[in-house]
Specification:
Chain B: One of its GO terms (molecular function) is RNA binding. Chain B: Its main location: nucleus. Chain B: Keywords: Exosome, Nucleus, RNA-binding, rRNA processing. The complex is a heterotrimer of chains A (289), B (339) and C (194). Chain A has 6 helices and 11 strands. A 5-stranded mixed β-sheet of chain A has the order 1-2-3-5-4. Helix content of chain A is 28%, strand content 27%. The radius of gyration of chain A is 21 Å and the shape is elongated. The two termini of chain A are 28 Å apart. Chain B has 339 residues and is α+β, with helices and mostly antiparallel strands. Chain B has 3 domains: 46 residues, Beta Barrel (OB fold (Dihydrolipoamide Acetyltransferase, E2P)), CATH 2.40.50.100; 93 residues, OB fold (Dihydrolipoamide Acetyltransferase, E2P); 113 residues, no CATH class. In chain B, α6 crosses α7, α8 packs across α9 and α9 packs across α10. The longest helix of chain B has 19 residues. Chain B starts with a helix and ends with a helix. Chain C has a single domain, classed as Ribosomal Protein S5, domain 2 (2-Layer Sandwich), CATH 3.30.230. Chain C is 40% helix and 24% strand. In chain C, β6 and β7 form a beta hairpin. Classes of the chains: A alpha+beta (289), B alpha+beta (339), C alpha+beta (194). Chains in contact: A-B, A-C, B-C. At the A-B interface, α1, β1 and α6 of A face α1, β1, β14 and α8 of B.
């Protein structure tokens, strides 16, 4: 997307005002409204779909498979597919790396252990059907919903199967399946997947979830990770406007990083609460579209 | 802290026919409600001439799109419910330059093919009426370049469906001092005039192609000349001092020459106050809300929506689904009251 | 998702007399019971893509959109038999929704032959087990825009299978038409309001 120089400078001048004036007059910590739906794919253990008002859309499916724990290096595998981009393009591999890295580091995968020999392995597949701004937040919020609503079948065989040759057996009744969160609770831990928040830095203002127009004039972009009610590493900076010559782009002041952490700590919890509230009120009977 | 201040997440709602609309509507609208779908026979009477959206087979006319039937004299056409903008001669539109080519610019106007703006169809610096010289060809990028937004009029439609534009009027040209947004083109109601001054020192141009430009209202013509003059000097200083206007032509006055350069300036007015900026964003959200509610966008509606939006002290909350619906409802109610 | 008619990204793609239809098929890794990584260059997917492009070249009034590309992206999120039929029906609806002129609906269904009895709309287990045929019917006629038979079928039985498949397609078309009208009327009623 290319803006004309006049638009660019108008937008930039608006964003650097105190308080910042965003084109849709969002507050600096305000995300764009979302439309979300969970558990709509019958063939997956968990699924979610998020749509933005501008037509951006992302679908995530979580599938679980029983594997021999000792043979697997990672119990989580992510795959990202963005329409219009080749799978091996920089853009897609960056997104994929970010997501995989985040989940593998911050997902207590020990809890996926079924028996002494076997374990669940989660396959997380993301499809970005259309996007305008940098889709990392979109992907991570959708995978949060999908993971939270993932249901795993109930184990009926013995947990200690060191000497048993057969595969573990599960209850046939899907109603007995437990959400992944209960698995964790049983082992004494709250289950809350980590999320990414993208922030834009412009003229000493930090703005949450910049839109595609805003991305074009940002001085810098930040990706902040939020987990267990606080900001954690990795925190990365990057040019969010892909394939454009952003002439405003410049180095990052360290105070911006500190401020981004503060803002993440302050407002990240609200995003998680909103997502959790949606899961609670979402029932299975709605149309998916 | 309130969660809704940070993010609002809703569930998708399946579209349903408004029950109270069905109840209150009389039979005349019920007839209008029926639509035709592709392959459906519209008429078997050969007297009708076939128009857009229809095809003709063995003396029978069939529809080729899903939409409403329109009959103008003997011309029968089906207007699709959705679809791309179809340019017509005389349409006031907004476009974005996508390519600078040989004596022409290509302009994205949201229709199926990019429109063409010939070098001969724009006003060039150095007088309105002068021959285009080679030096003009060489510096086309100095006038308009990729990404630039302009408003223009559709001059003609070529046989192959490509539209040709012109900007030969003072009200057309490059756009400055504001922001751009787009809505589905079928929401823009055609009228005589498509640029309006709105309350709050904001102007809007509603391009028939659904592209909309919101900007600060420029002052009266007298003041304009003053600012033009000072700005033009600035441009000449900063921009391109080596420029000599078309060799074969003589500019009538210095002022005219400079003011013509001004129409291709990329500099915004330096004195846009924060209140104007926030008014622009408010209008932006109002228009988006109207588009969300599938309401036709007119000057009146925008103003009514703006008044309704005053109920929201925090303009940022207007982007939520509920807020947009309530604005649309306010506008509809307001219209009903006025009849 | 339908994009276009729009400017072709490459000049060479442009056909001066009519529109080019480009279909992208994306079968999600998780669409089948067993998760399996699929690439876009897989033979089966390339074939599906080519079949769809050929089918719709005839039904869409391509001559109305010279020098343009109509790009259709299809995402298969879940599948249990009737993959091609489902994609064809979805594409028909999407093209109509995009306001692209078509001569008529293309409605599609799969059918198979079990012993002597023809069966309609097979699921994937049945598909693996017996010879299956997928047809696409233009409108309410008996003209076929699409016929795909991946294995053998006795000739004397073909007619009965085709008959049931055509009847099934007509039924699908009715269902699509009803839904389209319902959606269309919702939009139209909003328009009359405004």
């Amino acid at each position: 997307m290319i803006l004309s120089p006049a638009e660019r400078s108008y937008l930039y001048d608006s964003l650097i005002q105190k308080p910042t004036i965003r084109p849709d007059s969002r507050a600096e910590h305000q995300m764009r409204p979302l439309e979300a739906k969970t558990s709509f794919l019958p063939g997956s253990n968990g699924s979610a779909r998020i749509r933005l008002m501008d037509g951006s859309e992302c679908i995530v499916s979580v599938k679980a498979k029983v594997v021999v724990a000792a043979k697997e290096a990672n119990l989580i595998e992510c795959d990202v597919d963005v329409v219009g981009f080749r799978d091996n393009s920089n853009f897609v591999s960056n997104l994929k790396f970010n997501l995989t890295n985040l989940l593998q580091q911050n997902f207590p995968s020990d809890y996926l252990r079924l028996t002494s020999k076997y374990s669940f392995k989660l396959f997380i597949d993301c499809i970005v059907i259309s996007h305008s701004s940098y889709p990392l937040t979109l992907i991570s919020l959708t995978s949060y919903l999908a993971l939270k609503t993932t249901k795993l079948p109930l184990l009926v065989s013995e947990t200690n199967d060191e000497e048993i040759a057969e595969l573990p057996t599960f209850s046939d009744d899907w109603d007995n399946a437990k959400p992944i969160a209960d698995y964790f609770k049983g082992k004494g831990k709250e289950f809350q997947p980590p999320i990414f928040i993208t922030l834009g830095y412009v003229g000493s203002n930090l703005i949450f979830d910049p839109s595609v127009e805003e991305e074009q004039v940002l001085e810098n972009g930040l990706i902040v990770t939020f987990y267990n009610n606080k900001v954690i590493t990795p925190i990365a900076n990057m040019n969010l406007a892909v394939n454009s010559n952003n002439s405003n782009f410049k180095g990052l002041n360290q105070t911006a990083i500190i401020k981004s952490i503060q803002m993440g700590n302050k407002f990240g919890g609200a995003i998680i609460r909103a997502l959790d509230a949606l899961i609670e009120q979402d029932d299975d009977n709605d149309a998916i579209f | 802290m309130n969660v809704s201040d940070v993010i609002s997440i809703t569930r998708p709602t399946p579209a349903t026919i408004d029950s109270d609309v069905d109840m209150s509507d009389d039979e005349s609208t019920q007839v209008k409600l029926s639509i035709v779908t592709p392959g459906e026979m519209v008429t078997d009477d050969p007297v009708w001439m076939k128009g857009h959206g229809t095809y003709f087979l063995e003396d029978k006319t069939y529809s080729s799109v899903a939409g409403n039937i329109s009959r103008v004299n003997r011309l029968l056409s089906v207007i699709p419910l959705k679809g791309r903008y179809q340019p017509e001669t005389g349409d006031h539109i907004i476009g974005r330059i996508t390519e600078v080519g040989n004596k022409r610019w290509k302009v994205d106007i949201g229709c199926k093919q990019d429109a063409i703006l010939m070098l001969g169809s724009v006003n060039l610096p150095g007088g309105v009426l002068r021959r285009k010289s080679e030096s003009d060809e060489l510096q086309m990028r100095n006038f308009l370049k990729e990404g630039d937004l302009l408003n223009a009029e559709v001059q003609t439609i070529f046989n192959n469906g490509i539209a040709s534009l012109h900007t030969r009027s003072l009200k057309y040209g490059k756009l400055r001092n504001g922001i751009f947004l787009r809505v589905p083109s079928n929401l823009i109601v055609k009228s005589k005039n498509h640029s309006y001054d709105l309350p709050g020192n904001v102007s809007v141009i509603l391009g028939i192609n659904g592209y909309i430009w919101l900007s600060k209202t420029t002052n009266s013509s007298h003041n304009k000349n003053m600012t033009v003059n000072s700005n033009a000097n600035k441009i000449n200083a900063s921009g391109d001092p080596s420029y000599v206007p078309g060799a074969g032509s003589v500019a009538i006055t210095r002022l005219e020459e400079e003011s013509s350069w001004e129409i291709y300036s990329d500099k915004n007015d330096p004195n846009i106050t924060n209140s104007v900026r926030s008014n622009i964003t408010r209008y932006n959200n109002v228009i988006k809300a109207l588009a969300y509610g599938d309401l036709g966008i007119t000057e009146q509606r925008i103003i009514m929506g703006y008044e309704a939006s005053m109920a929201f002290s925090n303009v940022g909350s207007m982007i939520d689904k509920d807020a947009m619906e309530s604005i649309c409802q306010d506008v509809i109610n307001n219209e009903k009251m006025r009849g | 998702m339908v994009q276009g008619p729009m400017e072709p990204s490459l000049r060479s793609q442009a056909n001066t007399t009519e529109a080019t239809i480009e279909v992208n098929v994306n079968v999600a890794n998780f669409s089948t019971f067993e998760r399996k990584k699929r690439t876009r260059t897989e033979k089966r997917i390339v074939e599906l893509k080519a079949t769809l492009e050929k089918t719709f070249e005839q039904s869409v009034m391509c001559n109305l959109y010279p020098r343009t590309v109509i790009q259709v992206d299809i995402h298969v999120l879940a599948q249990d038999g009737g993959l091609l039929a489902g994609m064809t029906n979805a594409m028909t609806l999407a093209l109509i929704d995009a306001g692209i002129a078509m001569y008529d609906y293309v409605s599609s269904v799969s059918a198979g032959l079990h012993d002597q009895t023809p069966l309609l709309d097979l699921n994937s287990l049945e598909e693996n087990d017996m010879s299956a045929i997928t047809i696409g019917v233009v409108g309410k006629s008996e003209k076929l825009a699409l016929l795909m038979l991946e294995d053998k079928m006795p000739l004397d039985q073909l007619e009965s299978v085709l008959a049931i498949a055509i009847a099934g397609s007509h039924r699908i078309q009715d269902l699509m038409d009803t839904e389209l009208r319902r959606q269309g009327n919702i939009r139209a009623s909003k328009m009359t309001q405004s």
